[in-house]
Amino acid sequence: MLNDKPCILIVDDEAKIVRALGDYFKANRFEVISAYDGEEAVNIYYENFNSVDIIILDVMMPKLNGFDVLKELRENGQLVPIIMLTAKSEEYDQIKGLTFGADDYISKPISPTLLLARTEAVLRRAGKVHANDIVSGDITLSQSNRSVTDCGKLIDLTKKEFDLLCYLMQNSKITLPRDRILDYVWGYDYEGDTRTVDTHIKQLRAKLESGERIKTVYKVGYKFE
């Protein structure tokens, strides 16, 4: 972590992609470090290995390709989570990356929303999510023991309701589209539709004393105020 934020190393030889993803992750409370070829990526990682929480790694790059970087880090005992970016969709490339020790992969063209959801999911699985209390008005959400109090009253929430409220509070005053909420809380491979989000929002509002603070943004999604 850097400055109490998860730190991501973005590696791609296309400067526009690095800049666009960097801006997107910074807007979503990440610290960002960048590299533009495989050799630079290895050097920068080892210079910052105490801080880097996850690597987004392109496959097709000069000097060292993404597979070479992945293999180099894994053979040297580096367990940092790695998500591979590839312009190829062939099953062989996906299997190769996972065999070498990648945690996930995503094909280009990249959906930043989907990449963010997968990054956060990998970080959760790796236990790299920093658990602090989130306090907003009368609501206190404790990530360490997964409890919520509102106006001093302990609120009984299901796992999904807790994760949903946590995501809304972490992004206070930011409008979150339904599909992004679905990806984050239910996972990118969830086969249901966005009506699931609406149902859980309704349940959450009913349980909270301050449920009216979850605002509906017409035809878009929800935000917490």
What's this model, at a glance?
Helices cover 40% and strands 22% of the residues.
Can you tell me about this structure?
This protein has 8 helices and 12 strands. Strands 2-1-3-4-5 form a 5-stranded parallel beta sheet, sandwiched between helices. By secondary structure, it is of the alpha/beta class.
Task: Provide the descriptors you would attach to this structure in a database record.
2 domains; Arc Repressor Mutant, subunit A; four-stranded antiparallel beta sheet; elongated; 225 residues; alpha/beta
Fold blueprint:
Blueprint: E1 7-11, H1 15-27, E2 31-35, H2 38-47, E3 54-58, H3 66-75, E4 82-86, H4 91-100, E5 104-107, H5 112-125, E6 133-136, E7 139-142, E8 147-150, E9 153-155, H6 159-170, E10 176-177, H7 178-186, H8 195-207, E11 214-217, E12 221-224
Parallel strand pairs: 1-2, 1-3, 3-4, 4-5
Antiparallel strand pairs: 6-7, 7-8, 8-9, 10-12, 11-12
Helix pairs in contact: 2-3, 6-7, 6-8
